[in-house]
Amino acid sequence: MGQNPSMAADGSEYVDEIKALVCETFDVDPDTIDENTPFAEMGVDSRRRVRLLATVEVEFGIDIDLDELDRLVDIRGAATVLAEAVESGAKPRKRGLPGFLRRNRLS
C-alpha cells in the first residue's frame, strides 16, 4: 500500500521552527528570508549545513542520517527531512554527540 500524498511528510509543521533555528544558528535576520531561500544565498556552505543538521538532531532529540545533508538546501528542505525522520520513527538521540558524528568518528 502506498502512502497517501496528503499524509506525506512535507515539513509544513516544522518550517517556523527550522527558520528560527537557522536564524539563530547563522545570525540571519528572519525578515530577509523565507522557506525557499537557498542556504547558499545566506552564506551557508556544506560545513554549516552539517552544523544545522547537528542542531536539528539535538533540538528534536532524534538521529538523522548524514545522507540527508544534500536535501538541506533551504528551510523547506530541512523541515521536510525532519518531518520524514519523525514520521519514520527516527531513533531518539542518545546523550552526547549527534548521531551522524557518533557513526562517523575516526578511531
UniProtKB/TrEMBL annotation:
Pfam families linked to this entry: PP-binding
Highest rank taxon of the organism: Bacteria
Q: Which InterPro entries match?
A: ACP-like_sf, PP-bd_ACP
Carrier domain location is: 12-86
Protein name (Swiss-Prot/TrEMBL): Acyl carrier protein
- The protein's organism comes out as Amycolatopsis azurea DSM 43854
